[in-house]
Please model this.
Amino acid sequence: MANPMVLPGNSSTHEEQREQQRGSDFSELSRRITEAGLLRRRPLYYTVRFGAVTLALAGGIGAFLALGDSWSQLIVAAFLALIFGQLALAAHDLAHRQVFSRRRPSEVGGLLVADLLLGMSYGWWMNKHTRHHANPNHEGKDPDVSPDILVWSQRQARKAKGLPRFIGKHQAVLFFPLLTLEGLNLSFASFKALGNASMKRPVLEGALLVVHFVVYFGALFTVLSPAKALAFVAVHQGLFGICLGSVFAPNHKGMPMIEEGMRLDFLRRQVLTSRNVRGGVLIDVFMGGLNYQIEHHLFPSMPTPALGRAQVITERYCAELDIPYHQTGLLASHREALRHLRSVGEPLRDAGD
Model:
């Protein structure tokens, strides 16, 4: 499972019969997870976690104001990049209703954290992320593997033109440098999405985004000289983008891609396209539980502290059904993802133009 691959299409009658037989496989796993009490809300955990992130954010802002016009602010910029990464994970958990069971408080919290604090549209991201969860690594259905600057399959590479064609040749080498722009890219995409018909609250979200950037850039250029302010933005946004990529890229990149026509039940579709990342408490904190990506995709509303126990149950259950279950270390996961990026760019390098 470590090697990048594409799952071939198969719509035979025999496969349809097998799929019907598999229909109860996830139900059995769900029963075991429910009986273990792993879907219960964990209000104390989220109170402590969100409280710690809030205190850290306040501390970073306090340090920024205390230091004034100093190059030492670049240390604050790096610290706040890590805190922004944790805020992004908080917005993610709110979107999946891991924190609150009801829609209203989840949306209010998501709008405040994503739009106001991060400068990213909650509504746009949630729509995109929901489609990803429904069809992970499915070309044409998963927006996270849609061809853009990067290509995710050799078929996409053969069709690439212009800048994506050039970048696709060297995308494994350029991947981390490009991640430094990811935070700004999310903000740009958020403003762009405000005109989409799918946006439920474009005026509200637009106002929150404007407030975020007015305060963000206003504070920087009021407290710092122009050169220091620009350096702060470069360090803060660049490291924030790398944090995001380091959390989200190991989860699916380099795992099997699903072609149109491939028939997989829910359990296999989620397990075969996802990768878990081992690493202990530090990885759990840094990745906010998304290192248990398989379990998160199977049970998106499961609170973060329950994912570790769910991992043991799920891995054993997959072994019973002979379903490949892949997990590896953080560095190894990035090697697999980069190996995949290099592999799918091969047609562009062979073309030599």
The mean pLDDT is 91. The CA atoms of residues 19 and 264 lie 7 Å apart. DSSP finds 18 helices and four strands in the chain.
